[in-house]
Amino acid sequence: MEDRMTENKISQYLFYALIIAVPLFFTWLTYESFYIPKRFIFQALVAVIFLYAVFITVKLPAPSPSSPPARGGEMKKSFPPLRGRGGWGSIIMAVLLFSFWGLLSLFNSINIQVSLRYYSLFLPQIGLFFLTLYLLHPNTSWKNHNPPSPPFTKGGMGGLVFIEKILNVLIIVSTISAFIGILQFFGLDYEHGIKFSIPKKLPDKTAVYSTYGNPNFMSSFLIAVIPVTLINLWYYFDDIRKRYSYSIALFILIFCILISRTKGAWLGLFVSIIVLLILIVRNKSLMPFGDLKKYLKFSVIVIAALAIVTAGITLMLPVGSNPIIAELSPITRSHLTIKGRELMWGTTFNMIKDNPIIGIGVNTFRLNYQHYQGAFLKENPEYIPYLGSAESPHNQYLEIASEQGIIGLLLFLWINIIFFKEGFRIIRSDSPLKEKAFTIGMISGASAILIHALVEFPLNLVPNAMLYWLYLGFVMVMAGGRAKPPVGANRCVRPYYGGRHAGLPLRKTFNPFLSFLIFSISAFAAVIFIWKGFGPVIASKIHKDAWYLMRDMRYKEVIPLAKKGLKWDPLNDELHLFLGVANYQLGDYKESLAEYSKAYEIYPDYMIPFNIGLIYKKSGDLRLAEEYFKRTLFLRPNLPEAYSQLSDIYKETGRIQESMEMLNNAGRYRRF
Prior knowledge:
Elements: H1 2-24, H2 38-58, H3 88-104, H4 112-136, H5 160-185, E1 188-189, E2 193-194, H6 215-235, H7 240-260, H8 263-281, H9 289-316, H10 323-328, H11 336-354, H12 365-379, H13 396-428, H14 433-452, H15 462-479, H16 512-551, H17 555-568, H18 573-585, H19 589-602, H20 607-619, H21 622-635, H22 640-652, H23 656-669
Antiparallel strand pairs: 1-2
């Protein structure tokens, strides 16, 4: 029993570390002084959790004279079967197929190394899902005996107590990060120290981002936590201390989202709360009418407090500076954000049409986007004022369809259908009230993520992806967590899944040598995985230092520093770009061309062919210079500098009419 309690605590602390560290660690996007990326922290912590899961699986259980052996002599923990009760088999198969199809799409990737890097982030995400299923799964039970078993098994409840603790820590962490965002609204500035003041005007739209580096990233995470906070507020409504604790947390979370000015997040939050209320009202056992009336009355008080505070901000700031009004007022089809989305989505549809089955390859959207955008703009020039580079189409579903094909999208939808189906089954079942409540909270939180995914890319962001897969794992654990009572005093049974899986005996445990070998191999693989993830972190720091040198035009110092960074991360396209610029400025055109070519292979940015054109023009090869400037204008048809360079080339070659035309175009697009 003591060993089990120790396992429980260790695993619990590992999950706490994950939930606390990933949201609260500063991303490098926040300010130059922060260099701890959430991605690396997430990968490292999941690797440690995986190692611990391997350890408790392969360790030899202490002999117990009172414990009868299972068939075959000894007992071993085993992962839930691929088929059985609670949708386990379906969702496991769906996740595995989704992962496999992503690998299959590599055959269409224009840069397989860039695509493979995606899996250094995706594998820990699905790994967290499977680890959640395994560590919380009530795997074995003996009547009157106590063999080792996975941690957190709590009376066949699938670790409900542990899930509740994780959700509470999540609420606390989210509230802290939201409070940091509110402080930014009132003057917190990482660059110039902590200086608070009442703002004299509405802060810039990008000013509230907490530890996430971007308001959309922050809001996307917070809206997925608010439904869980709401459901806890309802469940513990009669506990005065908890009622006001959850109310304060809820107030801070919602207020931070309101001042972040992120319309897509507002939509996701609104839909998630509607889903939560529908699920509560449709299950009368969850909310008797008297309690519902009391709960709604208190909710009105919270909403009124939010309205008063928002109105207070309006009074402090100039007229019309209310963050909600300021953000909603320009919502028209001609608004830059709307037209920009139309351009990205139209371009993405063309990608899907060209590769409908297998996609263009995971993590290659940004590598293909500018070429497809150029083709789209040629047919639709009215969108030229809204063009730009894009890491994502700002629609998670379109991104999956473009990178992994229609089949990849269908597999992703299949995962979510199973998740919601099993969640609804818990809510309709005779499960304990707390289990139903938490299921409603997590379903609603996942709904917020999935709705926001219509206009953003939340699952590309580490904190949001972590929440999504944790919610899936927790709900599936509860869906398949109740075991059938053992038959007979000395019979070892597995949890009831129905059909041919009921009552199967456990297999033998590993012998000590095999246990040591498996753990050693796993530890070696985890260390390599963490080390490979550490390289981009070092390169990112070097990139920042090189950027300052580039800004100060200290090109001789840039070259050795950038080369050092590329040893850590050969796929850092900006370091190649720095080398290209530095060598060009120092007159080494051959080396500059080589570095520009490497940068273009990793990320085909429009400035690279422009810079190559400059090299050929300076070298006197006007034919190649013209070709690269035209390639630049295909990718970026509103770049006045490219038109000016072509005008000079045409003038030198005696093509005066074409030169004048290019000069006019340069003036026409200069305002963009």
